[in-house]
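Field: sequence (string)
Field: structure_tokens (string)

Example rows 1 and 2, in order.
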Amino acid sequence: MSSGSKKSPSNGFEKALTSEEEQTKIKEVRRLIGQLPDKLSIYCSDTCIARYLQARNWHVKKATKMLKESLKWRLEYKPEEIRWEDIANEAETGKIYRSTSIDKHGRTVLVMRPSRQNSKSIKGQIKYLVYCMENAILNLAPGREQMVWLIDFEGFNLSNISVKVTRETAHVLQERYPERLGVAILYNPPKFFEPFWMVVKPFLEPKTANKVKFVYSDDLNSKKIMEDLFDMEHLEFAFGGNDSMGFDINTYSERMRQDDKKIPAFWTREHPASTALQPSLSCALDSININSGSGSISDASDNEKTDCSPSLQVESEAVSPGENMVATNGSKHAI
């Protein structure tokens, strides 16, 4: 990688490092994290650590802190244990689902239709979002780390807007899935959405906000964006493509049940993600301590204690039936 700089979320410039410099920083994060249980050590592949470093502009201490908080969250929330039957009721209307096609870069595509929100439970909505994110990652092609969001605004109205749910969504994606979003296409958003976007945008780091593209079906430049990203023969008709199949809950349920069967193998040492691990690195137990009895991580190196899941400990509470999850990433202090 050539030296230089490009814009970053923190100071306007993102560090551009050589491969050797990147590896040095990855090893330093791994040393600070120390020894981990099997599932967490598999999660912490070199590519995973690199994503956290990228999210923090290659700042080792900030990336390590962010990763520790994610590890605590994964121990408590257990996203890899969520199964289709746990969230099937949230999926019935097709408000979020994984497309059968990928983009031209080989990235998984998640389709979102906020107007089809069918739940009043913030907790349930977030759990389904986490399931969809884990499923999209499960189906990434080898060598791919990011996904595409296609957000369809057909039927969207003011009742579908919820800053509270958007903040929850933003927190999860920003803090628990850094650098997983390649691009988010906002397809035919109505005019009244623009003020809402201005409210949501400050929750996002500039690097993330720049991944959000407004696309309109009657605009030639927008059409080119879609044609550059997708094979139009396999893109859904709703997004200007030629695939008229659409969403069917019964077909989709079967797809997800089959995917669920792949999850245990995904979280074993045989999975390719674990090949980059370096177990010979020293274990900094004073930095992060594993209590195998309680299944929790206690953090002794940070000056301040952080809630392992400040956003996801939201109780099920009533929100308007149309409340949705539209935003991409955001701040963990949003609530």
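Row 2 begins here:
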Amino acid sequence: MLLRRFILPVTRTFQHNYCSMELKRVVALLDGFASPSLAESWDNVGLLVQPYTQREIKTVLLTNDLTEKVMDEAVQEKADLILSYHPPLFRPFKRITTGWKDRIVACCLEKGIAVYSPHTAYDTLKGGVNDWLLKAFQVKAAAPLQQKDAPQPYTHQLEAHLTSDAAAAELVQRVTQEFGEKIAVLKDGKDCMKVLCREADLSSIVDLATTRLKSVKFVLTKLKKVPLSGHGAGRKASLVEPITIQEAIDAVKIHLEMHYLRVALAHGSALDSEVKSVAVCAGSGASVLGGAEDCDLWLTGEMSHHEVLDAVHKGCTVLLAEHSNTERGYLENVLKPQLQELFEGKVRVFFSQYDNDPLEII
């Protein structure tokens, strides 16, 4: 870690031959790399800060957390866009005054620096943060703990069975004129119309159908979700060969470049107990890892006291590396070269030397 801190500022002076990209092009490439639709519904991802004065993106700073030290670094390095894995804007702002997050937002707007956050889109992404975290072990048959489904343009199918084919044709015309591209109207044989729509439009469609037509029979079907293979929260896998808990600890320390981990041994286990299967979830993983009670070992950043107690009494050994330590290595070692390729070498991409987990063992 110290070696990287020493070398990084020196190597930057040799960066050259970069040009630039428009912000909208950079955002489009980032959205295409990991669609915001992969993120959890509660998350706040995508382009979070867009300065009023548009400028070309020449330099992108990668960081796990956008702290004031990282913000100062972005200004010093003349970054045009900050990709902050954790969204610095999460809850709504009622005013921008003197708080540390307020100061960061104000600085970004004043200096014309855009901010983009992927967060859980990178967690669920196939080949993303959790797949990188799982590489601490030699595994086979890895799979998400919570499968991600493809976003559906429509959630329901509504069938309207009418008294005549003419009535069905009339209803098709009226519904099409009223809702346009918000729905898909299918004429399906005699006396029937099928509508693909979202739940929010169902009552309006029914009201429209029954305004003039009294005898209408409706059949409602909720559309099934389509799973996205390999995408989802967390990962679980069987090991190629069994290892001991101590060997698992050592492997995680090497992968995360850490000297210490917090360890809670499963009830009745010892450091030489055998591990045949593992589950991982970057960040705060208790809610996701709860679906991996059949795994011998859990690896995540943080869990509460009582969540750890529940896990060890269910037979799962818990390794805690602190929240952002389970994410940072992906950004620096995997994402950085991927973005350099994604931007076709036109944009300088560098990782913050001031980003670190706020907690350390001393």
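free_text_note (row 2): The two ends are 16 Å apart (CA to CA).
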